[in-house]
Structure formats: C-alpha cells, structure tokens
Fold each of these.
Amino acid sequence: MILKRTIPLLIVLGIGVLAFMQDYVPHPWSSAFRNEMTTWTMVIGGFAMFLGVYSLSHMHITKIRRKMPGWGYSIFVFIGAIGMIAAYIFSDSIGALSAGTKDEMSLYDWGYNYILIPCSATVFSILAFYMASAAFRTFRARNLAAGLLLAAAIIVMFGRVPVGETVSGWLFNDRMVIPNLSKAIMDYPNLAAKRGIMLGIALGAISQSMRILLGIERSYMGGGD
Amino acid sequence: MTTNQNRPRHYELVRRIIYVFIALAVIVSYFYHPKQDFSPWIEVRKVYDKVESLSPGDHLFISIDYDPSSEAELYPMCLSLLRHCFKKGVIPIVMTPWPTSVGIAKKGCDEAVDDANSMFGKKVVSGKDYVFLGFRPGVQNLILKMGDNLKGAFDKDYYGQSTQGMEALAGVSSLRDIKLLVDLAAMGTVELWIAYGTDRAGIPMATGTTAVMTPDLYPFYQSNQLIGFLGGLRGAADYEKLLKIPGRGERGMPAQSATHVLILLLILGANIRMFAGRFLRKKEGLS
C-alpha cells in the first residue's frame, strides 16, 4: 500500500507544490529547479514515443494475427513505418548513415513530400464534402434559436470570403456591410462566448489540479478509485 | 447499420449530387481562377506591420504546430512569413515540437530559401541568415526551457550544427531576445505559447491558425496577448496580398468563395423546401 499509493501521492504533492511555487520565488535555486524539471520531462517525453510505437505495433500485430476485420490495412501500417524509418536511416543527406549534402532531397524527404503530405491533405479535404452534405441535411431554422444560429452562420460564411465583399459592394453601394457584420459577430458574441467557455475550463482545470495534488483525485494511478 | 437502412431512397442520390457540385465548384474555380478583389483584414495587417517594423538582424521565431493534414491552410502562411523575413533581412528561427511536422517545416525553409535567391537575389545560408532547429519533444516544457535557455533546449540545429556560437543566434540566449513569436498552429498550442512562452518572456506574439480554430483567438487578441493573427486560407491570402508576392493563399480564394456560396445555396434551398412543405401541410390541414 505504501509503495503503490502513499509514496506516489507524496511525490505528486511534493513536485506539484514545488512546480507551483517556482513561479513565485525569484531565487536562482527556483529557476535551476525549473530548468532541471523541464529537461527531465523532455527526456521522458522522448521515451513516451517508444511507448506509443510499442502500443501501435502491438494493436496491429494482434489484428493481423487474429485476422480481425480490416487486418489487411494493418500490414500497410508496418510497410509505411518500416519504409520511412529505413529511408531516414539510409538517407543520402541527413540520416544516421548520411553521406551527401543537405541541399539534396533525400528518399525520406521524397516520401514525406510526395506520399505523406498529399495523402494527409486529401483525407482532411474530404471534410468539405461531408460538411456540405451535413449542412444541407441538418442546418434548418426549425425554431428561433436555430434561426438565429443560421443567420449568424450565413453572415459569417459569406463575410469571410472575397465574394462576400464583392456582393456587399454591389448591394450596399460599395459599403462593406456584410464583412463588417461578420466581423462584429466574431468580435462581440463570439468573443464573449469563447471567453466564458475558457474561464470555465480554466476554473475546472484549477480545481482538478488541486484535487490531484491533494490526493482526492487518484484515477491517474489506475485502479479506478 | 440500421441508420443506413432507414434512410430514404433518394438520400444517397442527393448526397452524391452535392459531392459532385462541391468537386465541380472547387475544380472549375481553381483552374479558371477569376480575379477577386479583397481588402486584407486588420488582424493580418497588424502582423504584417510588425514584421515590417523589424530591423535587419532581428529575430523572428516560428513554431510549426501543424502536420501535413493542415498543409493547405498553414503552409502558405509559413512561406509568406519566411519570404518576408528574408526580404527584410530578419533572421527566422524555425522549430517544431511535433515529430510529424519536421518534414513540412524543412520543406517551407527550403522553398523560402530558394525563393530568396530567385526573388530578392539574396544568397540565404542556414546558420547565418536563418536557423531550422528541428524537433524536440515536450511542448509546454520545451517552451519553458526555451524561455530560460534556448540553446540548452536545442544544442544543435536540424543539420547537426552546434547552436553555441552560431552566427544566426548571436545575441539570442532565450525567448526574451526574440522580437516576435509566430505560432502556426492546427493544434491547441496557442494557449501554451501564451501561458508558458510569450507572457513570461514579455515578447509580442502572433498566430496563424486553421479557419476552424480562428474564433478561439479573439479573447487573446482583445487582451493584446496576440498582436494579430492569420485566420485560415483567407489569412494567408491577405498576407500574400500585403507582401505583394502571390501564392497558394490568393490562388485558393476563388475555390473557397465558390464552395462557401454553394454551401449557402444548399442551406437556403433546404430551408425554403422545409418552409414550403410546412406551408402546404398547413394548407391541406385547413381545407
């Protein structure tokens, strides 16, 4: 019990209080402590990547071994990962076994620029199609609140693109009415709502941090209590 | 599964028609690219003016907090900022706290260096006129570390050159020595940079974000924690217009305009149909 619960809780409390206090203590020891802790966390962050690679590999190896639905796609995970790692190691320019100059495009750069970037950008751009379809099916002025939301969305969408300025010029005698309305919506109602949400999140984060430091919230230690 | 079976028969057809219209709107307007006139937003102009006010030899820090999926919106911003720096003789320091962003950051640096040679006739050299520091893990801890000791956080640049004694980093020991920090972000890093980086170091900050993230920036902009921001592809286009070097931002504006107009027409059409249906049902009920 002491090893599993008391000591970890004391470490969290001690380090947490010290990390909190270093902002208010203008002493060289305080900044030295911060410097040391940030180095530690950067090193731990580096090792966390190995954990991620292990977790990903384990999940996909299990899928392939059990021939679970879609297991064929898991093979591509390994082809992509091993291919890019090999390309980096045997890279002509900057890899671990490098021989060339940095001005040359390496095999790794080629894979990144001509496979990863287009594929990622394509997947992300597909969102435009889904959004258009979803907007058509669901964006209805069924009541007053939905109507107001719809009106605000139309003004903002139209006011944020050049065609909105052109149409505004035609309709309102060269005055930027639609873009200005769009800006007013972003500057006031949007800002007020966002600030309220952010303050709420910040207060929640403070209370959660206090609960963790004081040992009230222990779910991060596992065990579900 | 049941949702698909319960959908009306015309549902799939309508969905596909919408997809075809969106594809046509993007393709036709991208290749036809009619000239569109627009005035840069004030938020973008403030960023441009700040970079313009920097002197040759000043340092501008760029954090690449986006990966290839957001390349369409944020890469043109990165390119314009770097071009502006090289044009002015400002020294950009580029880094990323994300392993998947290293390639896109390097691509931006390489392209801007080539542009500096061809556009401004300047021979830009790594380690002298700019620094690409590459990747380190840790995000907020990395930011804190750079606030204390930048060369301690990055002892070498991406190409393996030692940062100690590097000509481009002369006079820079921490974030406090940076004249402007720009976070190009598609992830929730803007708050981290403000809380752990620029507010502590007391330096001005600007951002370039995806369009969906832009509404989140207004509270920081109003409180002057951000001097300005570039929002989405329009922000990139505005910066290109101010810099007078056209790029992918401006080129994408007709496609974005066409898509927005099409989505608006679809929404209006669907609402008109809904109200017409309600009116007819009411009329039938009365008669």
Amino acid sequence: MKFIVCIKQVPDTMEVKIDPKTKRIVREGIPSIINPYDTYALEEGIRLKERFQGESIAITMGPPQADASLRECIAMGIDSVILLSDRAFAGSDTLATSYTLSQAIRKISDVSLVICGREALDGSTGQVGPEIAEFLGFPIITYVKEILNIANGFVECVRLMEDHYETLKSPLPAVITVIKEINEPRLASLKGLLKSKKANIPLWTKNDLGGEDKSYGQDGSPTKVADIWAHEIKKEVKIIQHDEPEQSAEEILNQIKDWGFAIKWK
Amino acid sequence: MEIKVISEKCNGCKICIEKCPFGAIEMDANGKAFITERCNLCMVCVKACPVQAIEAIGERQKKTSAEGKDIWFFAETKRDKISYVSYELLNFARNISSQINQKVCAVLFSTKSKGEELSQQLISHGTDRVYLVEDETLAEFRHDIYVCLTANLILKHKPNIFLASATMLGRSFIPQVAARIKTGLTADCTDLKIDSKTKLLLQIRPTFGGNLMAMIMCENYRPQMATIRPKTIDEAPVIPGYKGEIIQESYKSFSPTCRVELIKKEKTEQTIDIQESEIIVSGGRGLGDGKNFDMLKKLADLLGGVVGASRAAVDAGWMPYPHQVGQTGKTVKPKLYIACGISGAIQHLVGMQTSDYIIAINKDSNAPIFKVANLGIVGDIFQIIPAMIKKIENNN
Ligand SMILES: Cc1cc2nc3c(=O)[nH]c(=O)nc-3n(C[C@H](O)[C@H](O)[C@H](O)COP(=O)(O)OP(=O)(O)OC[C@H]3O[C@@H](n4cnc5c(N)ncnc54)[C@H](O)[C@@H]3O)c2cc1C
Ligand SMILES: Nc1ncnc2c1ncn2[C@@H]1O[C@H](COP(=O)(O)O)[C@@H](O)[C@H]1O
C-alpha cells in the first residue's frame, strides 16, 4: 500500500508584490513554504502508513528549488520523495499540472491513496485534486476531515460540505483532498532533519513520464493569464469618533434605521 | 498565427477563394486576394496558391474544440429547492448574454416529482432553456454521477460558456468535468466580462491570498468554464411572463454509475448558514475571548442576524469554522455587516466587502477595515456594543 501526497511549494502570500511594468510576481526575497494545506495531507500520509503499513511518498511539480520543500517532507517523516521538474512543465495551469502529476503517479506501483490539500495558497483553485482523479480514473472524495478506516480494498471517510457531514466509502485506489480539521501536523524530528539533509532527491523529467508532449506545460494549458493587478478598494467612508459610547451607539442605530432596517429603540 | 496575402505576388487567379473551406477570402479593389476575419487558420489556401502568394506568420495555435454556442450554468439545488447561488449564476449569465447574443441555459438535476416545478422557477427568473435530468438518485450529490451527466450534456450540446458556483459541491465535481472535456477552468471568479473585440469570456478572480486580481482567458477550448464565488452578485429577479423551454434528457441514456457509496449524512453543529443571512455581526481578535462572543450573539439576535468571525477568532477557537468570513472562510454579501474588533486584513475584506452596508467598530483609527466601511466608529467595542444592546432592549 502506497500513500502518495501531492505538495506544492508556494510563496508566503502575505508578502507578495507585483512589478507594475512586467505584471509579473516579484519572487525575489519572498520566502517559499510548503503550501500550508498540504501539511495536513503530509501528516495524514504519514499517519496512514503508520496505521496500515506501507509507504508514504511525497511528490511535487515545480522548479528545481522545490527540492527544499521535499526535504522538509522527509524531515517530517515521509518515506520517500520525487521531484517533477522540467523546462517543459513551465506555464502549466491546473489541467497540465494534474496531467503531469497523474503521469508520475501512474509510474508508481501499488498506489492506494493519493492525498492532496484542499487548495494551494497562491492560486487557491482546489482543482488539481479532482483533475488528478479524472486523469487516473480513480474515484475522489473532497474535503475529507477524517479517515475512519482502510480495509478490504475500501477507504471510509467523513467529508465536510457547507452544512452537513457525509460518511462515504470508496474503493481503492482513490484520491482524497483534506481540510485542516483532519489532523495536527507534526514538526520535523531531529532524526528526520538529519535524514533530510543527506537524502538524495530523485528527479523525474518529461522523458521519464511519457505521455503526450502537447499535454504538458503551456501547450497543455487551456487557460491563460491575460492580466494581473493589485487589488484596490475605493469607497466613500464616514469615520466618526465620539467621546461617549452612548453617542456612538446612537449614531450606529440611527444609521441602520436610515438604511431601512426595521429595528426600534428609544 | 496569422495568414496573409503578399500583394506583390498575387496574380488574382481566385483559386484560393474556391479552395477556402470557410469562405474567408475575398478580392480587393485592386484584384488581389485578402483574408477576412472568418479565417480559421486551416492553411488550405497556403498550399493551394500556385504562386506562393499566401503565407502563414507566427506559430500555429490550436483551434481544437473552440466552437460552442450558448451560456450554460449548473443550477444547484438544496433540499429540493433551487439554491440562491443558481440565481446568482443566472444573473451573471444574463449580463453576458446581452453582449454576445446567446441563449442562457440551465443544467438541472432533480428527482422526478420536482423537475418541472424547479425548471419553471428557473425560467421565470430569465432562463431561456433548461436541460433537465430526472432520477431519484439525483436527490443527493453523487460525485461520479454528476460528473458523468454534466460532461455528457456538454459533449452533446457544445456550449460556449459553462458556469457553476464555487460552492463545495461545484468545486468538488466541476474540475473533473473540465478535465474530462479537456478544457480550461477558472476557479472562484468574482466577476465576468466579455471582451468587446474577441467576444471571449474574461474571468476575473482574486489570487495570491486576495492581494492580486487576475484576468484569465480560455481562447482555444470550449466551453470556457468558470466557477463563481457565491455572494459576489445579486440574484436574478423574476421577469414576469418570461418564456423558456424545458429539454428532457434521459438519465439512463448516459448510464451513470457511482463508485463511492454514501453511508451516512449528518448535520454539522452549526444550523445556520451565514451566507444566507441578511445581517451579520462579526467579531475578531479584538473580542479578546470566546465568551465575549455572547455579546455579539445578543446584538445579532436583537437585529435579526447571525454571528460571523475573522480567521484570528476562529483560529483562537472562539467560534467554529463555518462562521469564518474571508478568503479561506465564506464570502458573504449580507445587507448589513457589522465588523467588531476586526482589523480588516485583505483576506478578510475579500470575504465581505460587497456587503450592501458595512459598519466597523475598532479602537484603532488606522485599521484597514475603515477603508471598506460605510460608517466607521472609532471606539471600544466593550462599551459601544453593550450600549447598543441596552438601547434596543429599553425600547422593547
Ligand atoms: C492565505 C490566508 C488566508 C486567510 N484567510 C482569512 C479569512 O478567510 N478570514 C480572515 O478573517 N482572515 C484570514 N486570514 C488572516 C488575516 O490575514 C488576518 O490575520 C485576520 O483577518 C486578522 O483577524 P482580526 O482582524 O480578527 O485580528 P487582528 O488583525 O489582530 O485585529 C484585531 C483588531 O481589533 C481591534 N481591537 C482590539 N480591541 C478592541 C476593542 N476593545 N474595541 C475595538 N477594537 C478593538 C484592534 O485595533 C485590531 O484592529 C488569512 C491569511 C492568509 C495568509
Ligand atoms: N505543482 C504541484 N505539485 C504537487 N501538488 C500540487 C501542485 N499543485 C497543486 N497540487 C496539489 O493540489 C492541491 C490543490 O491545489 P490547487 O488546485 O492549485 O489549489 C494542493 O493542495 C496540492 O496537494
């Protein structure tokens, strides 16, 4: 039984800037982290292999520097990692990304479960998990908050929807996307850190993955970013400071009434 | 890529006009051929010209499946009713349709007893056509079945644009539909426009944690697909006397099967959906402690609203996650949003800035929340909120 965790290296979004001329994201000097949602996927991958035996494997598609994130996975306790990196993957949208990841997963034998985070911090699409499921032909359960059991070729999970939970049972192999309620990710252990420093990170390129050339990178990406700009908010604002809280309360309630809400007070 | 006629070389023989499968070549006043906008870049003319007067400039682009007609939306239902998000999609679809002159069509999955009635409701709000699939299994969200039916309907009728709501349901199965059709999908859009020249769909969405806005296009594949963040537009109103048609699609003809079995369904602790409330009183780190949310709850009750929270308050365990407003919580668009002790980080603002009216109470006059507030009160929530509660109570 192998548990594959898909992780993405992302810039720490609070600090993002764009170059007004080139409209490109200025990546220099911005720290890269493992997509925070993927740390829950990693933790679950490690726990599953502890619970049910087998192997946990983290994979990522990204630039060569993404190998730093894979080392962090090893430090946390992931058994092995694979870096998918090739100039030909540049410009991938979610469709090309999930195609690339699914080609890699296909090459790994005896996969039971593919675990993705609910979404990535940068794009926040949450599309890669379901699209991997389609390319692999695996069933998928999204927004998983608990894995109840894996037995007899099935996985049983609880997933969250807007206003209810569902307990679902899927045949293996399957894909799941996980939410933060599922676990508390562990920190790297000292032993793990030592192991991660020495680890040699296997690199797979397009040639290793096979498949159709035109499905990779920019060619395999139907969507194009046509423009990008900083988010600005413009609005007429009335800011008031009263000495007495009663005055403030009065002001607010009057305003609410003026806007047409039916509340009454003295 | 572009196809061009080299005027100096053209001898006016008109062979290219005969050969062009798209009727895209005409003769100009000087007896030379020229290429019109109908050109599909098929290159037949380039090969046909006996004097090599037609050339292709630039790289060939894929025109794989770039054809389609009409604007479709996935009509989500909840407990056998049309969900409000469907009317939001309809509103977006109608705005676009007026610019490209295509029909607005809904895809509706329903049980047998309800299909007709729900279809009529969609039509009365301005839907031109409803593709209706009825079956008892469709009462529940069954991922595989929804993917199969939606993908097959798209392949059968070839829409130009396909919209779905970025609810947990839409975001679960629509990406798989897009991957099956092999087209692009833009997630969680907050606005849609039509490019006046190319008539392509411009899909606008926040990205990088809400710091940036991006405009995404899908030029060469159809349908152009997007999921739309709930509560970014008003619901489409009823249009009295609106006429539309219902196309019954047979469930069995697509032979859907579901690999995942639903064992149990249970309500979450939270019974109210904050997205459905018209008034939200929201609290942040400024509340200092979970039990201070009682004060907000009381005010919300008096105003007929519900309580929301910033991520800081949720992370501190003061409120459960379903109440979180913002980038990683819910986007809300109530009539009235009262932000109490919330600083107004961009990730919070993207979740509530389209509310009709916003009141912010914060003791820091520089808090960014004041940028989006219609009324900003600089002051202490622990004094102002109890004063508000007292005034309302004294009146009743
Ligand atoms: C990828 C990402 C996603 C995120 N998603 C979300 C999200 O979905 N929702 C969200 O809310 N945040 C989100 N955040 C977090 C966001 O950046 C902020 O950290 C968060 O919104 C801050 O919450 P706050 O305003 O409650 O707390 P603070 O920023 O600490 O603000 C507290 C405010 O209360 C005021 N205050 C204190 N005491 C009083 C008093 N007695 N009376 C009046 N005012 C008082 C202070 O002046 C201050 O302005 C996200 C961050 C990231 C990186
Ligand atoms: N380049 C990538 N490499 C590996 N996994 C990825 C990559 N991009 C996305 N994922 C996975 O897909 C999830 C959803 O990402 P996204 O669809 O980009 O929001 C992430 O949480 C990851 O688990």
